[in-house]
Amino acid sequence: MNQDLIIARYGEIGLKSPKIRSRFERKLVKNIKATFECDVDRNQGRIYIFPKDFDEGIEKLNRVFGVVSYSPATSTKATYEDIDETLSQYTKDLMTDGILDENTKFAIKCRRVGTHDFTSQEMAAHCGGVVRNVVLAPVDLTNPDLTIFVEIREDDAYIYHEKIKGPGGLPLGTQGKVVVLLSSGIDSPVAAYLMMKRGCEVVALHCNNDPFSGPKVTENFNALVDQLNIYAKGTPIKRRVIDYGEYLTVAKEKAPEKMTCVLCKSGMYKIAEKLALKLGADAIVDGSSVGQVASQTLSNILATRYGVDMPILSPLIGLDKEEITAIAKDIGTFEISKIDDGGCSAVPRYPETRADLERVKKACEDMDQETEVQKAFENIRKLD
After folding, report:
1. Global pTM?
2. Which letter does DSSP use for residue 71 in this model?
3. Which residue blocks in the chain are alpha helix, DSSP H?
4. Sign, Cα dihedral of 253, 258, 261, 266
5. 8 A C-beta contact, residue 192 and residue 182
6. b (16+ CB within 10 A) / e for 33-44
7. pLDDT digits (tens, 9 = 90+) for 160-208
């Protein structure tokens, strides 16, 4: 089929003020160009993409946040003669590809922007006749097997029959920067993905718990960031790693053992806040889901966030494990996350599940948490 461009559509970007919409459109175009080689035009709420490699463009456009749907299309001029010729050939190509035959119920939908000597309804009826001149397929405007779209904008016309669902959301890089506490598990990579989908630039912070974690933890972290980066063209994820084992050792030695998980998460938040302030990020993100593990009961969530002034966002907070796993499979992180990394041996046999804030404060004082957090933060490393 002789398709020469891809029409991409956005959703909520169109609800912004003209100034903001234009800025978001420019960022969306930049991200598209960073994802695959192409030329791009913007016009009246549409993004017209001319890929160097058409198949690559169709495959990779599904990774660009802000794109709600897209259609491989054939362009022509908005005259009866040009539309007739192009639509006739398009119909023949549909037949060759086995998409249309004399038993296929079809409809024509026409959308028109600009000044023309025909209405949208008149052009749709005309195009239906063009198709039936090629194949005597039945017209069914209510429940068609195939819909052929004819989109006319000023002097140009576009013909297509597919609307491929895009990832939606907002263009990556339009909503500020966040620090994501990214482990090698299933949840936090999904949390990072969902924040990227809302347009946030991500700094991935990994806490290496050695000697309480296995040797594959940092390796898996890097593999997860590599996978997430296929959705981050134009605004790649930054990587930061800290050695967290010394902090955990002090927590286990100087505070009640059952408080280890609470103190662990509390320290991570405080380190993430320091990093966020240093890098100009606006929030911290984690993969918490209410009740999923010991540190994620409501009382523990409250206790672990004590002393952190920056917003902590948990996009998975109301999702269950099946829902989170489904997203992980869809975005390609699940297979990496399920690799056995040995877990964390610092977890006590009976972890605290209903932390009292006063006892948490006391435990933080006992281990001199502020000093240990600062020591860990001073040894933070870049991996990008």
Report:
1. 0.92
2. E
3. 18-35, 54-60, 80-96, 120-134, 187-197, 217-228, 245-254, 260-279, 298-304, 321-331, 334-337, 357-366, 369-378
4. negative
5. yes
6. bebbebebeeee
7. 999 999 999 999 999 999 999 999 899 999 999 999 999 999 999 999 8
